Amino acid sequence: MNKDQVKGKIKEVAGEVQEHTGKVVGSAEQQAKGHAREFEGKAQKAAGDVRENAEDARKDLDKDLNKDLPRNVTRP
Predict the structure, then answer these.
(1) What CA dihedral angle connects 60, 63, 65 and 66, to 10 degrees?
(2) Is the pTM of this model over 0.85?
(3) Residues near 7 by Cβ (< 8 Å), separated by ≥ 6?
């Protein structure tokens, strides 16, 4: 898990809380701001997911490339 995934999830939850609070107090403005914050968080979390998947793929590729090398040879 990376920082974008964590920060994104926090924003998402904060936005949900803000949106529901806006509903309770009858503030359409707070509902809209909460909704926007929620989706901003989802987008940040998705970016973090992409970053993590790319890093995992790079590590897998690196393992595959290194397993074929003789033990005394390392890739630069």
Answers:
(1) 170
(2) no
(3) 41, 44, 48
